[in-house]
Design goal:
The chain is an alpha+beta fold and about 180 residues long. It contains six helices and six strands, in the order H-E-E-H-H-E-E-H-E-E-H-H. Helix 1 packs parallel to helix 4 and helix 4 runs antiparallel to helix 6. The structure holds adenosine-5'-triphosphate and magnesium ion.
Amino acid sequence: MKEISMHILDIVMNSIKAKAKLVELYIDDSIKRNLLKIVIKDDGTGMAEDMSRQVTDPFYTTRTTRKVGLGLPMLKESCERCNGYLKIESELGKGTIVSCCFERNNIDRMPLGNMGDTIMTIINSLENCEFLYNHITDAGNFEISTAYVKEMLETGDIRDSETLLWVRDYVNENLKSISNF
Ligand SMILES: Nc1ncnc2c1ncn2[C@@H]1O[C@H](COP(=O)(O)OP(=O)(O)OP(=O)(O)O)[C@@H](O)[C@H]1O
Ligand SMILES: [Mg+2]
């Protein structure tokens, strides 16, 4: 993958597929601490203990169309290549927390990518599911949620194109204002 946001999309899609009612995405981007940490939390079906251990193995998947699940193993590999880690905490019937970390200044660390586009794509994929995104840098903190957007724009349908484009620009503008540079 060229950008970390592609990995984020993949992990969030897992949460949506697991019938989550709420998906939370936390990004902690710090030059001071030289880390880029990402946490994706859901209240979906969860996984049994042996499964959450096996899913980072590229030969494990519950998909029938293809034998190999790639999302989690590829993210794990990207993190470890950058002196980081991937951790899965999951409980059947409760939900899943995927946490991963990259050494920020590592030569192999991919750019984060465009978060406005990413959040727009995530919101467009939600079915009966709420979403929250919180992004922290050394300069500040930004948060947006589907609940907030619905209230702000007084819209029930958060997936119409005007709303999605507003979300994309709102995310990008706010991230610029807390950028580390
Ligand atoms: N948040 C989650 N909640 C419940 N089960 C999950 C979650 N994330 C992953 N899984 C389980 O782990 C498996 C492996 O996930 P992974 O993303 O690595 O591959 P995949 O989704 O099967 O395929 P791909 O991502 O390559 O399209 C999934 O098939 C699913 O059964
Ligand atoms: Mg997947």
